[in-house]
């Protein structure tokens, strides 16, 4: 080996902290805000609950603007035809013909969006406390910019388009796969389809699992999750392909915000915050 030194993964992670985050010469208060710290359980529960309540309140308070939303859906549909990717209707009909599959997708759409996202947040809190706040910031910034999209660009989902033959799979199969269909449709803004946060959140989950999980098959599942979610949102006629692109752009914005604030991408930060004993981290 000569004079080379073998370092552990944890040593490399600690050394990977960029200077802007921990440099002692920076402004004290701002430096403390930008330095990853040990998350506090009570604060995180309160923050997530209040944030989701606020997100739901703002999303559903956006004027539905039905006429504009339908015009925008027509434009998106024409654009996809121009690009040669307007196959959502065929996918919707094909999957809808397999009852057990489309019913499963309806429940997938209604539940995993929240269950998996919360599960990844809990895992980060327990196993990667040094990266938790930055990765959470990505999710919050992604969701925040999506709210701007809902306000500026109301969009009807494919199942509500005029003159189309898209199947509203929740109504047809009488499941509760979407709060924008059936008996719950008055509780949610039906014209907030662009961008798709099913894609924004699932891709956040997938990238986080792929970047930080150690077990190979878990990392593969992480990559599969947003891919399956994309198929689900299209098959259930809740989104266009381009809605998914909007969700990806929002996620890119979220990563940009975290990169600027912490001076590094969340996954490059130390696994444990400064001053927190390694043994306290759940493996």
From TrEMBL:
It is found in: Membrane. Pfam families: PAP2_3. The keyword Nucleus does not apply. Signal peptide: none annotated. Keywords: Membrane, Transmembrane, Transmembrane helix. This is Phosphatase PAP2 family protein. Residues 1-23 are annotated as: Disordered. It is a multi-pass membrane protein. Residues 75-255 form the Inositolphosphotransferase Aur1/Ipt1 domain. The chain crosses the membrane at residues 41-58, 107-125, 137-153, 191-213, 220-238, 244-262. The keyword Transmembrane applies. It comes from the Bacteria.
């Amino acid at each position: 080996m000569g004079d080379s030194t073998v370092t552990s993964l944890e040593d490399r992670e600690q050394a990977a902290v960029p200077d802007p985050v921990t440099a002692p010469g920076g402004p004290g208060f701002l430096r403390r805000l930008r330095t990853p710290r040990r998350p506090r359980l009570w604060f995180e529960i309160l923050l997530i609950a209040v944030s989701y309540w606020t997100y739901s309140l703002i999303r559903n308070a956006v004027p539905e603007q039905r006429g504009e939303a339908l015009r925008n859906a027509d434009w998106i549909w024409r654009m996809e035809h121009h690009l040669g990717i307007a196959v959502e209707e065929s996918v919707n009909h094909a999957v809808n013909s397999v009852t057990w599959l489309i019913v499963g997708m309806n429940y997938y759409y209604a539940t995993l969006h929240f269950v998996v996202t919360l599960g990844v947040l809990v895992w980060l809190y327990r196993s990667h406390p040094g990266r938790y706040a930055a990765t959470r910031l990505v999710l919050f910034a992604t969701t925040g910019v999506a709210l701007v999209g809902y306000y500026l660009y109301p969009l009807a989902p494919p199942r509500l388009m005029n003159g189309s033959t898209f199947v509203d799979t929740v109504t047809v199969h009488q499941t509760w796969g979407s709060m924008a269909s059936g008996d719950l449709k008055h509780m949610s803004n039906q014209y907030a389809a662009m961008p798709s946060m099913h894609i924004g959140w699932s891709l956040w989950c997938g990238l986080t699992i792929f970047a930080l999980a150690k077990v190979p098959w878990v990392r593969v599942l992480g990559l599969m999750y947003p891919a399956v979610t994309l198929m689900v949102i299209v098959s259930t006629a809740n989104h266009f392909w381009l809605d998914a692109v909007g969700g990806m752009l929002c996620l890119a914005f979220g990563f940009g915000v975290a990169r600027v604030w912490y001076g590094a991408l969340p996954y490059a930060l130390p696994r444990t915050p400064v001053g927190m004993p390694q043994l306290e981290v759940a493996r």
